[in-house]
Automatic annotation (TrEMBL):
Protein name: FAD/NAD(P)-binding domain-containing protein
InterPro entries per UniProt: FAD/NAD-bd_sf, FAD/NAD-binding_dom, Metab_Enz_Cyan_OpOx_G3PDH
Originating organism: Acetobacterium malicum
FAD/NAD(P)-binding domain boundaries: 24-135
Pfam families the UniProt entry points to: Pyr_redox_2
Keywords: Oxidoreductase
Amino acid sequence: MARRMTIEGIEVVGVYEIMKTPNGLIRNIEQCLNDYNIPLHLSTTVVKIHGDKRIEGVTIANVDGQNKPIKESEQFLECDLLVLSVGLIPENELTRNTQILISPITNGPIVDENMMTDKPGIFAAGNVVAVFDLVDYVAATGEIAGRCAAIFIKNELTRIPSRKVSVNAGNNVSFVLPQKINTDATGTLDLFLRVQTEMKDAAVMIIVNGAPAKRLKKERVILPSAMVCVTLNREHALDKDVTIEVRGVNNET
């Protein structure tokens, strides 16, 4: 939006992000802000809007570690337009109307590795399940859901729910998809996750019974704005719930 307004001739004073790390993809920050000399201010938020019939300005302030405005840092900016970004949630109207179990974290349906919800025969994928940042991941979950729905219709995917274990979000992980795994399945499984805070030299670990079982992936830098995809091998003990954590490479054990 900042880039579009700049192209249309509007002077954009800046983008103000309350988080200490950007919520957008790195490539979008480069192409939409840096390439147009639009400043990005992190750990900053709007605390007051000035004006009566129209906006005359805003007061911004830096925030502390709990995202609370720091009074001493308040600054008035003259402007006549304020654009607010309030985040994204999955399209879940149909999900709620069908009384499918919804995750309080993603605001989308809880699914298993087949992208099937808790209602047998009802599948969900892409931005219905969670907000994905890459269309590649949306397409991947859509392919899984479509393939498994076709198998289900042919009665080749059991209609009797098998026992499932939970995949839980652990240290520095906001959520993991899918949230359920069938214990009788074989092969590999792609897990999608988001972290809570930026971390360098990070290791994505699978935790079983409180102890690290295996490193699933190593990342030089991992960001809250970028969804991470890791592959889980079914050789792991999947007869019990597992937890996915992100740790520093030097703290894997």
